[in-house]
Design brief:
Layout lengths: L4 E4 L15 E4 L18 H7 L22
Antiparallel strand pairs: 1-2
InterPro entries: Spore_coat_CotJA
Protein name: Spore coat associated protein CotJA
């Protein structure tokens, strides 16, 4: 599976008035990388599913970007 987070370096002009953000990112949902939902996928426990917002770990997408120091669910 590909990474759910994509990164790029935007053009930074010499006269930009604000401090530049050198690397920007965006998230792509995991269902984009799964053609169909196969039978027998591993499942979270009910408590974990409520905390992650999905029953299936393969469809879980962390938010915010973990590389930017975001919080993680247990």
């Amino acid at each position: 599976m590909s990474s759910q987070f994509k990164y790029w370096e935007p053009y930074i002009g010499p006269f930009d008035p604000c401090k530049p953000i050198r690397v920007k990112s965006y998230s792509t949902p995991p269902q984009l990388y799964m053609n169909f939902q196969p039978a027998g996928l591993k499942q979270f426990t009910p408590k974990q599913a409520l905390m992650h917002g999905t029953l299936w770990p393969q469809l879980y997408s962390p938010y915010p970007d973990p590389k930017k120091g975001g919080t993680k669910h247990a």
